[in-house]
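Following up on my earlier thread - several people asked me to post the actual chain instead of describing it. Fair enough. Here it is, all 182 residues.
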Amino acid sequence: MKSTRFLWPLLLGFVMCGDTWASTIHVSLCSLQENPERYLNTMVQVQAMIIAGIENPHLTEGKCWFRFVRGDDYQDLGDRFPATQNEQWMLLLKLLRVSECASNIRVARAKIKGTIIRVPATGTIPPNEMPLELVIQSVSEVERVPVNCTPPASLPNSSAMPSFSQNTLVHESSHVDQPKQQ
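Reply from S.P.:
Thanks for posting it. Predicted structure:
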């Protein structure tokens, strides 16, 4: 009888701890951008456009953006953040593999679940000052986002600009300009 009383709080703590790990916070991309430290080491869900093929791949929604990496494509993470590689994941990879633009810009829209982490330190910046990013672990509602741009074959030395959002401009040189406040 005494052993049962001892195990009950331990079992309850284990269940509550397991529940904490399993819970996901639904958050806007703007909330992540405004206060990323609040979500550090937390599983979040956002709905956003995924922009790849540029210097700093990121998620964007409206005027807000946030860095990302895929859980299956980051050598430093090992198995800490496993990715659910189902049909939706494969569709996302397919959409982000091929570009219609000379700039190699690739865009998709999805509902994204992942963990907010600090970018692993690789140089002279202290680890606690590294930026935060979202490690994508699962996706749903994946869809293609049409990109209006100059096709790869017809852009020898042009500075044409692809467009896929009214709020972010991506140059053929792959640099991102955030919109100017009015």
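Confidence is low (pLDDT under 50) at residues 6-21, 155-182. That should answer part of your original question.
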